[in-house]
Design goal:
There is one protein chain. The protein has a two-stranded parallel sheet with strand order 1-2. The longest helix is centred in the first third of the chain and has 43 residues. The protein has ten helices and two strands. The protein has two domains: 46 residues, no CATH class; 123 residues, Serine Threonine Protein Phosphatase 5, Tetratricopeptide repeat. Helix 3 packs antiparallel against helix 4. The radius of gyration is 31 Å and the shape is elongated. Helices cover 73% and strands 2% of the residues. It is mainly α and 240 residues long.
Length: 240
């Protein structure tokens, strides 16, 4: 057998593959048309799904806007055509809870559904219904993404602190400090944590606040100084 160069081998192989391809197309025209049709169908389905998702997103955003109108409503005499008004606080509270509950039930697992749960928690807390508030904030913590979940954690910490569950409040705030979000900073969680542990762990609270007392951010510095001022006096050890 004559020696075949690498270039010739590649050329012959290429020709062979081309010939096989031509023969395959000739023998399988119907199948290829079918697969091409399937490809087109898949594209159509994807476009349809995207359009449906866009439509659903628009509907959820519209529902949020309507619920926010109720949230921003007033009680008494109508002062502006753009503001909803209720005759009594009870009527307004019921309307807010109904609006957010409907949205939460209609769109569970979505950002809008999580937002609805967060507003439900806020409203329940304002009404003094802390059990209901806690349930709503737990949903935000467990179902929200890395942006929204810390909001649920922070609200839960406030609920726990108000109920004297300081260990639970501390746990939530430490979790936020370890994984802050764009809506809740490490500074905010750390200062809140220092306030919670001020009586039980004053030395640690002092260490947590120290770096923020001289912060270039005025709001952070003020909050840290205020929390620091409320710490119990440091215990001075007598060393001979």
């Amino acid at each position: 057998m004559d020696k075949i160069t690498r270039k010739e081998l590649k050329h012959d192989k290429f020709q062979e593959e081309v010939q096989h391809s031509i023969e395959y197309v000739g023998e399988h025209k119907s199948q290829i048309k079918l697969y091409a049709g399937i490809g087109v169908a898949v594209i159509v389905i994807i476009v349809g799904i995207y359009s449906y998702m866009s439509s659903q997103q628009a509907q959820r955003e519209a529902a949020i806007k309507e619920a926010i109108k109720v949230q921003n409503s007033a009680v008494g005499t109508n002062q502006s055509p753009d503001i909803m008004v209720f005759k009594t606080v009870e009527e307004r509270n019921k309307a807010m809870v109904d609006a957010w509950t409907t949205l939460a039930n209609k769109y569970p697992g979505t950002d809008q559904g999580v937002t609805a749960q967060y507003y439900l928690g806020i409203n329940y807390a304002d009404m003094g219904k802390l059990d209901d508030a806690e349930k709503a904030f737990l949903v935000v913590e467990n179902k929200g993404d890395k942006t929204y979940a810390p909001l649920g954690r922070f609200a839960l910490a406030q609920i726990y602190e108000s109920r004297g569950k300081l260990a639970d409040a501390e746990k939530e705030l430490r979790a936020i400090a370890d994984s802050p979000s764009i809506l809740l900073s490490k500074e905010q969680a750390t200062i809140a944590l220092a306030r919670v542990i001020a009586k039980t762990k004053p030395d640690e609270a002092r260490k947590l606040l120290e770096p923020y007392r001289g912060s270039s951010r005025a709001a952070v510095s003020r909050a840290a100084l205020d929390a620091f001022a409320n710490l119990p006096p440091a215990v001075m050890s007598n060393k001979k």
